[in-house]
Amino acid sequence: MSNNSEIIYNKPWILQRADPYVYRHTDGYYYFTASVPAYDGIVLRRSETLAGLASAPEKYIWHCHESGIMSFHIWAPELHYIKGNWYIYFAGSDKDDIWALRPYVLECADEDPINGTWTEKGMMQRADDDQFSFTDFSLDATVFENKGEYYYVWAEKVSVGKKISNLYIAKMESPWKLATAQVLLSTPCYDWERIGFWVNEGPFALRRNGRIFLTYSASETGVDYCVGLLTADENSDLLDPESWKKSRRPVLASDYSLGIYGPGHNCFTTDEEGNDIMVYHARTETEIIGDPLYNPNRHAMLMKVSWNTDGTPVFRY
Known about the structure:
five-stranded antiparallel beta sheet; 21 strands; globular
């Protein structure tokens, strides 16, 4: 079995797996999923060690539909274990309307998510008093728990013409329904969030030292893709945008000296010793053949997270 000492940090770890997601479960296994280059379904793999995920067998646990909703652009799955069941949150569109991206939910009530039975819960349901959620291009949903409440954070485009991708947050009533109307959490307001496209997407929460650190990705998906950070006190009202402070500069960006380009769409896990690890994707070349969105060479990588004396995270290659 592979062990953690075999990991080479900030180098391609799992090839051609964008939007990587790792979850360490109470059964002792690490689980991995990501967007596959064909964008045609959802895969899972697992290992007793973080390093072992790189060579672990991979299985499609769900394939896209032949037509209609969930038939195209299957993106950014995340695996969560909520109140005894497994859930996968992902985005999908329609072959006949490929940018009609919407958030969908799968559920598995079996103990083993790889060999168990997955059922479609359909599109994430907005709150009863919300007429605006998921009415346009919506993707990159994540879920986190704080003080016994579950929160859903996602990216959704607004406006007309060249649309803007913002981050929104809401409380959850159930794993497939929101309890509150969406709240605008972050919009691309800085120059480094507006290269190519105005983008905030790919959120993920890390709760440490009494605070919630919400990373997100910004700008277009080429070499200018980067990671921003929002921070809130865990005791604050997380549905109040004033509770969140946005870092003025990206916390992770391309490093031409190291050959790491366009880092983004990360998550967090811990290694076997309990150390915090960032899982992210990046490119190893600056020249991208074709549309960056369809170029398969975004690779999953790992980074050790360190901590400042003031309790804030440090993301450094």
